Amino acid sequence: MAQVRWSILCRESPLDPAKQTLSLTEITDSILVAGLPQGALERGGIAVAIQLQLVTMWRRTDVNTPETIQARLVVVDPSGTYLGESVDQVIDLSGNNVQFRVTSGIEIMPLRGRGFYTFRVEQRRDAAAGWSVAEEVPLYVEEAPPPS
Q1: Which of 40, 42, 52, 142 is 20 to 30 Å apart from 67, CA to CA?
Q2: Are 100 and 92 within 8 A, CB to CB?
Q3: What is the pLDDT along the chain (148 residues), one digit of tens a residue?
Q4: Are the beta carbons of 89 and 58 closer than 8 angstroms?
Q5: Domains in the chain with CATH codes
């Protein structure tokens, strides 16, 4: 099955088509949530607008063997509870595509407390196959103290 070379959370990931280069801007592994009512994260069940992207580089298992898989992004809270998932996406590693970059935009984050949230990149060969974890990317969420 295809392999994830790397996955990175960042603010932006502009691509220069002429050079075929990708820039990762404001790479992050944590966010500080401010402006919430006191204790809102601890009570849980809120959604916060954020602007993040998860950029993942896939590659063929064997460079000489084309393959195609389905992938999705699953979000899990600090207690391990499922929060949601993206639409399935086809990763086409056939023809000249030995590697394939995928950018998943994250605009709203459901929060249920502070701690490590996990963005789980999952894959399967086809719709009949089960999902397997290809990569897990943590994001630490902390609540800013109230202004004094």
Answers
A1: 52
A2: yes
A3: 899 999 999 999 988 888 888 899 999 999 998 877 666 666 767 888 999 999 999 999 999 999 999 999 999 999 999 999 998 999 999 999 999 999 999 999 888 888 999 999 999 988 888 999 999 999 999 888 777 7
A4: no
A5: 3-143 (2.60.40.2550)
The pTM (predicted TM-score) of the whole model is: 0.88
Of 100, 121, 99, 119, the C-alpha closest to 50 is: 119
CA distance 114 to 141: 5
The first and second tokens of residue 65, run together, are 């063997």
15: its two tokens: 């691509």
Angstrom CA distances, 83 to 13, 35, 46, 65, 117, stand at 25, 22, 12, 35, 10
